[in-house]
């Protein structure tokens, strides 16, 4: 679909060694379903997701649009024609004024669209969301977010959260530890405390990792890390890369777990790529991530930790060939080889063999790629990231046998100086100090 496809056997594979990922040969898989012949039905199309619920507070709220035909069938490819979905989000009351950034919906290349919006302030009366297609309201649009919940700015903080703020302190991470790693975790911890009641918790996160086993005497120290290993007993949090991109979506990062879903689909070029240019520095600057995702196969190679590109590669349309590794991220337990990705040996001896298999079994490879993409899109949603942090903090706090306190060498981490974060306390009840 979308033009002639070059003969894969007539094109020499192009390997782009990118530290944690390798890209091979552009273009999508064969056999993709054609769009339904019936036109788009705004009334029958569906709108769902956490961005439609006032009680869910995230840095960027988001929801999905599933395109449905007038015959009642879900589109599995982008709808034909030039008509686009339009989303208008504004305060419910004309007396309230805040800035709301609403970029155009992202086409996920499977018949659905992703809508994102970032609020720069809180609303007492509520929010109105209009989803339009060709001037007609989609599904049950307009959607009203109000009721017993006001719509809060993501960084809102007030008196009922000061007890949490006092416990967020940055310890000594060592002279060779990147500060951004610690900052990302502290920012997410603070952001979690701004959205829910978190118990008093104090923990250690540092390098090197904890190698004591559960049945050793003494047992392992409960150290929190961003990457796990089969050789260590660390408690794994989402990587600082995922954490930072979630906090800075639509603001401080180019690629995040939401926006990357719009960088899928067929390469704009249907021409086979030639050999690598013969210049001394041709591989010093790798292409941007969105350009890499236009390739059909991605090889994920770990370094001294798990490759932080892996979640982004899964979110694309490519088949991911993952190196066998002792390292893992927080969500790896849900990802299975030969269902969500193709496993290759640690020394990469069978890499070319697995690529040959994928070429000769195109339909099966396409199914694995789609399974991996679907699982990643479900597991790596921002609200699940917050839930994971919250669960870790709560379970950790429940098992503490002493009250956390400020110790020598720790640095106080204050709340950000953001006027939009001032809490007007629209909620009827404050959270209790002892929660």
UniProtKB/TrEMBL annotation:
Keywords assigned: Endoplasmic reticulum, Glycoprotein, Glycosyltransferase, Signal, Transferase
Compositionally skewed regions (Polar residues) per UniProt: 261-272
Full protein name: Protein O-glucosyltransferase 3
Cleaved signal peptide residues: 1-32
Region listing for Disordered, in residue ranges: 261-283
Molecular function as annotated in GO: UDP-glucosyltransferase activity; UDP-xylosyltransferase activity
Similarity annotation: Belongs to the KDELC family.
Entry GO terms, CC: endomembrane system
Residue ranges of domain Glycosyl transferase CAP10 in the record: 203-403
Pfam family, one: Filamin
Catalytic activity: L-seryl-[EGF-like domain protein] + UDP-alpha-D-xylose = 3-O-(beta-D-xylosyl)-L-seryl-[EGF-like domain protein] + UDP + H(+); L-seryl-[EGF-like domain protein] + UDP-alpha-D-glucose = 3-O-(beta-D-glucosyl)-L-seryl-[EGF-like domain protein] + UDP + H(+)
Functional pathway: Protein modification; protein glycosylation
Encoding gene per record: POGLUT3
């Amino acid at each position: 679909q979308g033009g002639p496809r070059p003969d894969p056997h007539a094109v020499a594979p192009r390997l782009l060694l990118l530290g944690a990922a390798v890209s091979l040969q552009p273009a999508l898989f064969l056999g993709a379903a054609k769009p339904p012949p019936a036109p788009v039905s705004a009334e029958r199309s569906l709108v769902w997701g956490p961005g439609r619920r006032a009680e869910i507070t995230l840095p960027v709220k988001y929801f999905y649009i599933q395109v449905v035909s007038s015959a009642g069938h879900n589109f599995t490819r982008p709808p034909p024609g030039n008509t686009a979905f339009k989303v208008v989000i504004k305060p419910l009351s004309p007396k309230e004024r805040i800035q709301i950034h609403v970029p155009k919906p992202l086409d996920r290349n499977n018949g659905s669209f992703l809508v994102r919006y970032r609020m720069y302030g809180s609303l007492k009366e509520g929010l109105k969301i209009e989803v339009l297609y060709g001037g007609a309201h989609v599904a049950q649009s307009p959607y009203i977010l109000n009721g017993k919940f006001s719509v809060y700015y993501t960084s809102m903080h007030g008196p009922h959260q000061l007890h949490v703020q006092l416990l967020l302190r940055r310890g000594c991470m060592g002279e060779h530890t990147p500060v951004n790693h610690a900052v990302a975790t502290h920012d997410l911890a603070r952001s979690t405390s701004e959205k829910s009641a978190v118990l008093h918790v104090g923990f250690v996160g540092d390098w090197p990792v904890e190698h004591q086993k559960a049945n050793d005497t003494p047992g392992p120290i409960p150290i929190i890390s961003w990457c796990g290993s089969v050789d260590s007993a660390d408690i794994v949090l989402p990587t600082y890369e995922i954490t930072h991109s979630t906090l800075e979506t639509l603001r401080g990062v180019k690629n995040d777990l939401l926006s990357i879903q719009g960088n899928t689909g067929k390469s704009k070029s249907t021409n086979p790529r030639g050999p690598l240019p013969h210049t001394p520095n041709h591989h010093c600057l790798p292409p941007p991530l969105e350009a890499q995702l236009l390739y059909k196969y991605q090889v994920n190679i770990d370094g001294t930790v798990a490759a932080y590109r892996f979640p982004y590669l899964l979110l694309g349309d490519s088949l991911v060939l993952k190196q066998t590794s002792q390292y893992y991220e927080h969500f790896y337990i849900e990802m299975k080889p030969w269902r969500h990705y193709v496993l290759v040996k640690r020394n990469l001896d069978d890499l070319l063999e697995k690529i040959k298999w994928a070429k000769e079994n195109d339909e099966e490879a396409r199914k694995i790629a789609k399974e991996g993409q679907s699982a990643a899109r479900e597991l790596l949603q921002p609200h699940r990231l917050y839930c994971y942090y919250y669960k870790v903090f709560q379970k950790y706090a429940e098992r503490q046998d002493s009250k956390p306190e400020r110790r020598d060498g720790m640095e106080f981490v204050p709340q950000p100086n953001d006027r939009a974060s001032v809490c007007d306390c629209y909620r009827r009840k404050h959270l209790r100090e002892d929660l």
